[in-house]
Amino acid sequence: MRGLMMDTPLLISSLIEYAALYHAGTEIVSRTVEGPIHRTTYLDARNRSKQLAGVLQRLGVEPGDRVGTLAWNGYRHFEIYYAVSGMGAVCHTINPRLFAEQLVYIINHAEDAYLFVDLTFVPLLESIQEQIPGVRGYVVMTDAEHMPETSLPNALCYEELMARESADFDWPALDENTASSLCYTSGTTGHPKGALFSHRSTVLHSYSACSLDTLGVCSRTIVLPVVPMFHANAWGLPYAAALAGAKLVMPGARLDGEGIHQLVEAEEVDLLAGVPTVWLMLLGYLEQNGKTIDSVEKVVIGGAAAPRSMIEAFQQRHGATVIHAWGMTETSPIGTIGTLKRQHDGLPEEERVTLQLKQGRGVYGIELRIVDDEGNELPRDGVAFGELQVRGPWVVRSYFRHDGEILGDEGWFSTGDVATLSPDGFMQITDRSKDVIKSGGEWISSIDLENEVVSHPSVAEAAVIGIAHPKWDERPLLVVVPAEGAAPERDEILSHLEGRIVKWWMPDDVVFVDELPHTATGKISKLTLREQFSDYQLPTA
Ligand code: AMP
To answer: How many whole angstroms from its chain centre is CA 414?
Structure first.
């Protein structure tokens, strides 16, 4: 027997309509590429999204067409999110930090009809324009006054197009499984692969983001996503903020500590979200300039493991609560969340932080399990570790225009992460499967080691990679970026690790460098690092 409830489709257009109706005056504040701070409201953003949908229709964009963006977090990018998906086309956010060849590959693979581009990235597109002949036109996200001289063919000015359009556009009543947006993963091997989200997956993910035990976005929230809108849809925050009616603060091109701090103070931001690399910059700036972030209540850290020193700095020095989260582009991205439970209230702070080093529980909707090399499920005992697999309504079941099955038995998606699951449901990532160090048949977790190393006050950033060893197969090499003004010694770092890690995990050597290579999404690029140290001879070898 079927239930007798309405079949109302879950559509992205309904999020902005809701925000415009119930939170009409709530602000979206953006630091613009042109310079000044721009302020708008949900009502205005809804109207302009409709205008833009009209523009797209006039440009000949059809349902299902891909419309690309190379843009920072800002109000025009927000309008594009809603206009493109709302009209039934696919909003393809492109990470401008990728290598030129990857950009060319992605734009051609997606067959983007139009590209919307912030002023910053016009030269980048000019340099590859001849390799992306399928693009019919380029919309520069600025006004007539700032429109640059450009060699891009069919370059159009965003505000000029908008000025000619009314807000009369009617959102189509799409099937909720219609594709809404597309984001390629910057995978370390092979070509980038496209995760193609749907209206349904996006709306369900937004509900999850808003629940109190997840990110707790609500109408009182003032959220600043430092995580870019080209990285897994800024973790879904542009949608969740509209669903909740939260004030959105968009940092534009300035992700440095000072830029973020200024916005936090001026707009009284209470929720921050971003990867550890940006928090290193923010915490460094606060420390050096004696500044605080008093309005901030919660800092979401994801994309890479949050080290203890970072969690402690936010909680103990700045009075904010860290929410450690795990996810991937393929999981929309929220998968697990490390909010603590009531039963943890009485624990000493150090033990609470130890729990927060874990990536947390699966949120409702995401099932998790760990398996061994043969695919057998491993116990949830906090000790056994194996590949993490996930399943749920906002997890990919295939990649865009990709042949072949990507799901394993019973529809599980293999994440490529290695993790433990504890009996109370907390998951902890120990490594990417490609990054684990195999020493004498046992595994060493590079993430655990790195976390301990960065708790040394003279260390800014650290990475551990496996180096070939004649006896042990691989042994760990520690690569350290010293903190500003510090000059730590090898032995001082190693003795800091004594007692904090099991003996046989002790790195065989330490190398000091000025900086570590990072990927386009701000993670330490272990692949590049392994290449850089491919000829390295360990003193123990
Ligand atoms: P991306 O698709 O670029 O967001 O990358 C997803 C990958 O980032 C995951 O598969 C993990 O390897 C890594 N990752 C995400 N969040 C965390 C976290 N909190 N701790 C450790 N690794 C993480």
So the answer is: 19
| 3-class secondary structure, 415 | strand
Cα of 325 vs centre of ligand 1, distance in Å, is 9
Secondary structure (DSSP) of 424-462? TS-EEEEEETTT-EEETTEEE-HHHHHHHHTTSTTEEEE
User: Could you tell me the distance, in angstroms and rounded to a whole number, from the CA of residue 397 to the centre of ligand 1?
Assistant: 18
336 touches ligand 1 (CB under 6 Å): no
Domain positions in the chain are: 12-212, 365-432, 437-532
Q: Do the beta carbons of residue 521 and residue 304 sit within 8 Å?
A: no
Task: Note down pLDDT in tens along the chain; length 541 residues.
Answer: 999 999 999 999 999 999 999 999 999 999 999 989 999 999 999 999 999 999 999 999 999 999 999 999 999 999 999 999 999 999 999 999 998 999 999 999 999 999 999 999 999 999 999 999 999 999 999 999 999 999 999 999 999 999 999 999 999 999 999 999 999 997 656 789 999 999 999 999 999 999 999 999 999 999 999 999 999 999 999 999 999 999 999 999 999 999 999 999 999 999 999 999 899 999 999 999 999 999 999 999 999 999 999 999 999 999 999 999 999 999 999 999 999 999 999 999 999 999 999 999 999 999 999 999 899 999 999 999 999 999 999 999 999 999 888 999 899 999 999 999 999 899 999 988 889 898 887 889 899 899 999 999 999 999 999 999 988 899 999 999 999 999 999 999 999 999 999 899 999 999 999 999 998 888 899 989 999 999 999 998 8
Q: How far, in Å, from the CA of 329 to the mean position of ligand 1?
A: 9
Q: How many CB atoms lie within 10 A of CB 462?
A: 25
Dist. CA 326 → ligand 1 center (Å):
6
At the fourth CATH level, which superfamily is domain 12-212? Answer: ANL, N-terminal domain (3.40.50.12780)
Residue 47 CB–ligand 1 contact under 6 Å:
no
- Which of 41, 185, 292, 321 is flagged as catalytic? 185
Active site residue 443: yes
Spatial distance between the Cα atoms of 54 and 167, rounded to a whole number of angstroms: 8
Two tokens at 291?
A: 């500044």
Does CATH number 3.30.2420.10 belong to domain 365-432?
no
- Probe ligand 1: pick from 188, 193, 326, max atoms within 8 Å of CB? 326
Choosing from 258, 292, 438, 528, the catalytic residue is 438
pTM score: 0.93
Same fold, 12-212 and 365-432: no
Query: What architecture does CATH give domain 437-532?
Result: 2-Layer Sandwich (3.30)
The angle that helices 237-244 and 199-210 make with each other, rounded to 10 degrees, is 70
CA distances from 34 to 103, 148, 150, 516 (A): 24, 12, 17, 31
Among the residues of 324-458, which ranges form H helices?
A: 349-356, 446-453
CA-CA distance, 537 to 541, in Å (whole number)? Answer: 7
User: Among this protein's residues, is 354 annotated catalytic?
Assistant: no
